[in-house]
Amino acid sequence: MTEIDRIIQRVPNPFDCETFWSGNFWQEEQNPNLTVDSIHQQALEELESILDLIVEDRRSRTVLLEGETGSGKTYLLGRFKRQLNDRAFFVYVEPFTASDYIWRHILRYTVDSLLEKPEGREHSQLVLWLQGLAEFKHRGVMDWWRRERQMFVRKLLDTYPSGIYNAQEFFGVLYHLTDPELYPLACEWLRGDDLDDESLRRLGVQSTIDTEDAAQKTLANFGRIAEATQTVVLCFDQLDNIARSPDGTLDLQTLFRVNAILHTQKLKNFLLIISIITDTWRQNQGRIPATDRDRIDTTVQLRQIGIDQAEALWASRLYLLHRQTYPQPESPIYPLDRKHLDRKFPGGKTRPRNTLILGRRLYQEAKLDLLQSGLERNGDRPTPAAPLPTEAKSDPLAAFKLVWLKKLKQTEEKVSRIRQYAAPELVQMFAEAVSALSVEDVQPRLLPSRTYASYSLSYRAPGTTDRVGIAWSEDANMVKFFNFLKACREALDRNLCQTLQLIRAEGVGSPNNRGYQLYTEIFSAPQNNHFMSDLTSVRYLATYHTLVNDALSGDLVVGEETPTLDRLQSLTRQTEVLKDCPLLQQLGFFQSTVARESAEVSLQAIEDFIVNRVLNQQCMAVQQLIEEAIAQFGGASKKQVYQLVQTLSLSDRPVQILDPDLEIEEQLIIGNG
Question: Does pTM surpass 0.85?
Answer without folding.
Answer: yes
